[in-house]
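In response to the reviewer comment on reproducibility (Comment 2.3), we provide here a single inverse folding case reported in full, input and output, so that an independent group could reproduce the run without further information from us. The structure tokens appear first.
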């Protein structure tokens, strides 16, 4: 860690990394909610995809305001605001369950999404700044590994609770989470995080400055292509997570309780391990080269699932988890470094709009699964990974031509 993080920034890095765990946990619960709400509220796979769609709509709508908020208030106040929204959404599950209203649950998830995007808009670029630019991708991969830890624990803890009996209360895990997040907000309101400002950040204080920043960012081909690549990555990653339990239970491969455990310790555990290994590999090998290899392997993995050829297809799912692990932090770091000279916080806010791709991917997979099979629906993540591969090859070619 000493080589990745400047010594003076070690404590801020640890504090910020805790946020990665929190939103990883919150996002992974959604993958359990899909199956739980299908049974509790008697809705279809396609209808349950609204869980992801609503949450990531919050990401899309709140991302740019989050960037402006953090630019004007700073990282610490931005983080506290995000945590308060996160807590409010979680606690709304209590009246949601008393009403047994899918609409109320969706509203609560929308508020959670608004809070999470503020946290991610602040934490992702902040982590890249806490050391040398050359190690930004590796450092962000390390921080994102704790996001993976949250993803591992959420399905097994919450899934184990919700799937234990038909009467399990969804408001219990969300109520506990809401209180825990409020305590985290209290901690961050008292600590001092060093602000890392760029001249261009400070100049974005008026509508004219904001407009010029946005125009400058979108005229940058590296930034523009990176945002699109992240959008397609989110299509693949979120849709597979969301419907993993449905895939695993569709042909009797597993029951839902076993599937939630395998999702945690098998798929997401592999994801976290691969992200840690990827961070180490990219300290020795150019991140662009690693991204190309991972892009190719995920395309192969997703297509194996589509072919529906027994154990090879099931292995393909785990190939996707292993080789997609480094994609988000690597694409984010490449893109945010390429945006230097512009407002990094505003650049981050555009990058954090991309989880809406997960909503698109989950809705499409759900619709395809309802009319065909879960295996066939994996054509959607295959397309997402294919675009990431094209992006990786483009970045590698540009690096060689530089």
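Designed residues, in position order:
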């Amino acid at each position: 860690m000493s080589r990745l993080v400047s010594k003076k920034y070690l404590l801020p890095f640890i504090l910020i990394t805790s946020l990665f765990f929190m939103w990883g946990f919150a996002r992974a619960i959604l993958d359990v909610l899909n199956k739980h709400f299908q049974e509790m509220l008697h809705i279809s796979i396609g209808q349950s995809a609204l869980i992801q769609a609503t949450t990531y709509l919050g990401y899309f709508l709140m991302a740019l305001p989050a960037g402006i908020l953090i630019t004007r208030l700073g990282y610490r106040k931005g983080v506290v605001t995000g945590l308060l929204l996160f807590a409010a959404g979680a606690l709304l599950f209590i009246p949601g369950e008393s009403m047994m209203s899918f609409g109320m649950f969706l509203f609560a998830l929308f508020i959670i999404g608004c809070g999470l995007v503020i946290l991610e808009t602040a934490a992702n670029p902040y982590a890249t700044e806490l050391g040398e630019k050359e190690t930004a991708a590796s450092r962000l991969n390390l921080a994102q590994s704790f996001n993976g830890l949250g993803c591992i624990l959420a399905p097994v803890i919450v899934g184990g609770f919700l799937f234990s009996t038909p009467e399990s209360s969804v408001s219990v895990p969300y109520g506990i989470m809401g209180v825990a997040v409020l305590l985290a907000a209290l901690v961050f309101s008292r600590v001092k995080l060093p602000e890392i400002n760029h001249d261009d950040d400070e100049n974005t204080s008026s509508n004219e400055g904001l407009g010029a920043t946005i125009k400058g960012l979108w005229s940058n081909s590296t930034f523009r292509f990176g945002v699109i690549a992240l959008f397609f990555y989110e299509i693949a990653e979120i849709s597979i997570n969301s419907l993993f339990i449905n895939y695993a239970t569709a042909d009797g491969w597993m029951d839902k309780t076993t599937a939630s455990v395998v999702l945690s310790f098998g798929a997401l555990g592999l994801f976290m391990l691969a992200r840690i290994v990827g961070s180490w590999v990219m300290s020795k090998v150019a991140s662009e080269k690693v991204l190309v290899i991972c892009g190719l392997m995920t395309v192969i993995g997703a297509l194996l699932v589509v072919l529906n050829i027994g154990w090879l297809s099931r292995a393909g799912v785990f190939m996707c988890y292993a080789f997609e692990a480094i994609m988000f932090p690597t694409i984010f770091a490449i893109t945010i470094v390429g945006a230097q000279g512009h407002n990094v916080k505003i650049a981050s806010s555009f990058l954090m709009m991309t989880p809406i791709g997960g909503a698109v991917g989950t809705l499409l997979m759900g619709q395809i699964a309802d009319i065909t099979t879960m295996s066939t629906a994996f054509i959607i993540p295959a397309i997402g990974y294919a675009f990431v591969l094209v992006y990786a090859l483009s970045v590698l070619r540009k690096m060689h031509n530089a």
